[in-house]
């Protein structure tokens, strides 16, 4: 282990592990996997990866990943057993099991996205370097390689055109992009789907980013919220980095392991 875990956190994990049926829902990037420049190269720390495998095999224990990544990207980078439920796109895409994938968009949603895209695409095509990225329930207009004045002008042009074409859209400004979606969800929504499906006695949720606060804010009495890193949080507990989170998961996995399997159940 890197640094000794906070005694209050060890006590909370031990109490949580003693409950009959638990759900362990984990953000991926920055929580299990150190941040990297190329998203496809992100990998969970080996200790975290092993603990997730052990938790997935433990009785009455569901371990799930909840990420802002698309479901495809999360499945690629996550490399978790196929039985591990995945929530992608901040709660828009849910894979509860290999044969139970809930798509982000209905046919009506897709028709709405296509209609909007028909309005926006010609505006984007007129600007050198601008391009459209398809998203689960919408699309993003990217302007990173456009000269800054043209990028600003295009962003405002498409914002206004989209507002006129479909006033109820969710519009998000990102770094060198503007994103339009016909549906919106948060990690809190994703966590609610998991809780409804698996009906645990309590939930452990861990995450490092602002978007994880939506899920952390939904935790109640027996639940356990863990913030990874130093940012402000509503969580009651904190670890400093993915290594600290790995230590928590190893402890939890050892406490949840089937005692009759030969190995010691003590950390
Ligand atoms: Mg993260």
From TrEMBL:
The protein's Enzyme Commission number: 3.1.3.12
Recorded metabolic or biological pathway in which this protein acts: Glycan biosynthesis; trehalose biosynthesis
EC class: hydrolase
GO biological process: trehalose biosynthetic process
Cofactor (UniProt): Mg(2+)
A single MF term (Gene Ontology): metal ion binding
Reactions catalysed: alpha,alpha-trehalose 6-phosphate + H2O = alpha,alpha-trehalose + phosphate
PANTHER family per record: TREHALOSE 6-PHOSPHATE PHOSPHATASE
Job description of the protein: Removes the phosphate from trehalose 6-phosphate to produce free trehalose.
Family: Belongs to the trehalose phosphatase family.
Full protein name: Trehalose 6-phosphate phosphatase
Organism: Microcella alkaliphila
Lineage of producing organism: Bacteria, Bacillati, Actinomycetota, Actinomycetes, Micrococcales
């Amino acid at each position: 282990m890197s640094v000794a875990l906070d005694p209050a956190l060890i006590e909370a994990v031990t109490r949580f592990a003693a409950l009959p049926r638990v759900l362990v829902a984990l953000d991926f990037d920055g929580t299990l996997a150190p941040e990297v420049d190329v998203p496809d190269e992100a990998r969970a720390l080996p200790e975290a990866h092993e603990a997730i495998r052990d938790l997935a095999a433990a009785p009455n224990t569901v371990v799930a990943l909840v990420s802002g990544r698309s479901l495809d990207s999360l499945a690629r980078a996550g490399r978790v057993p196929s039985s591990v439920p995945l929530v992608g796109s901040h709660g828009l895409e849910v894979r509860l099991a290999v044969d139970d994938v809930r798509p982000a968009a209905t046919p009506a949603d897709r028709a709405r996205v296509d209609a909007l895209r028909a309005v926006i695409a010609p505006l984007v095509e007129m600007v050198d370097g601008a391009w459209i990225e398809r998203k689960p329930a919408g699309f993003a207009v990217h302007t990173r390689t456009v000269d800054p004045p043209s990028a600003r002008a295009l962003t405002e042009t498409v914002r206004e055109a989209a507002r006129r074409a479909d006033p109820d859209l969710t519009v998000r400004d990102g770094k060198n992009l503007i994103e339009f979606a016909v549906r919106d969800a948060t990690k809190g929504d994703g966590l609610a789907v998991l809780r409804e499906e698996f009906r645990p006695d309590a939930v452990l949720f861990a995450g490092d980013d602002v978007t994880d606060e939506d899920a952390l804010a939904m935790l109640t009495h027996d639940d356990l919220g863990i913030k990874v890193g130093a940012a402000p949080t509503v969580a009651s507990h904190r670890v400093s980095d993915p290594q600290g989170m790995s230590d928590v998961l190893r402890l939890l996995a050892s406490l949840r392991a089937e005692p009759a399997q030969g190995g010691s159940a003590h950390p």
